[in-house]
Amino acid sequence: MTITTAPSPKPHGHFLDAPRLPRGITRFWLIRHALVNPTDRQFVYGSQDVVICPDDVIRSRPTYEAIAERLPQDAAWYASPLSRTHQTAQAIFDAGYGQRSIEIDPRLSEQSMGDWHGLPHGDLPARLTRIAHRFWSIAAAERPPQGESMLDVCARVAHALDDLADRHPGSDTVIVSHGGAIRAALAHALDIHPDTALRFSIQNLALSIIERIDGHWRVVGVNELPLPRAPL
Q1: Which range is the signal sequence, renumbered to this chain (predicted)?
Q2: Cα separations (Å) of 198 from 76, 135, 154, 206?
């Protein structure tokens, strides 16, 4: 008896049917920075340069190790100019990923709250001209004096993503950034209004993954919290 094997169907649709993400895709791994110092969290800090909590870095060592294991080794690395993103990247490097060079891109920074930087959170509502977003400090269209709206953030982050996708086609790029900027990236990938994107929860050290395929963006994962391996 002769057994013939039908030819494998030609891949189409770029479906994700395997447990591992395929190589050769323009892919971005977006990581929100680590938790900042408790004193700074009492105030609106936006794009101010505050540092991460050193005690939390120690407590979260297993999470950093899980992130280091999850990320592709041959990725290009980018971060915002704010030191909390650099410190987070360094903690990932120290947790087993290995040292890498990081390119700084101001377009990946957090929303500037302008004259409202440093306000206690309880004082912010009296300054607003629009009803605050339920899941963000201000509405997407609210622009603080000398600051920027989330609409502004989405515009600059979209420009950065398209530019970096052109610069690194078919390869992986890790971006250590901020909650607002990552929401802006999701707004760009999904072509949705910033007010809608602000409904995403983006936790500290959470990983979100987006891809650009043939000029079209898609979202692979949002707010993934890499878990440490269970002890043997």
Answers
A1: none
A2: 27, 6, 11, 15
Give the pair of three-digit tokens for residue 205. Answer: 């050290």
Length of the chain counted residue by residue: 232
Using a pLDDT cut of 70, give the percent of the chain over it: 93
Whether 223 and 200 have beta carbons less than 8 Å apart is answered as yes
Q: How many angstroms separate the CA atoms of 192 and 180, rounded?
A: 15
**Environment class of 187 (CB within 10 Å of its CB; exposed 0-12, middle 13-18, buried 19+):** buried
Of 176, 187, 179, whose CA–CA distance to 203 is shortest? 179
* Domains of the chain: residue spans and CATH: 77-224 (3.40.50.1240)
pTM (two decimals): 0.91
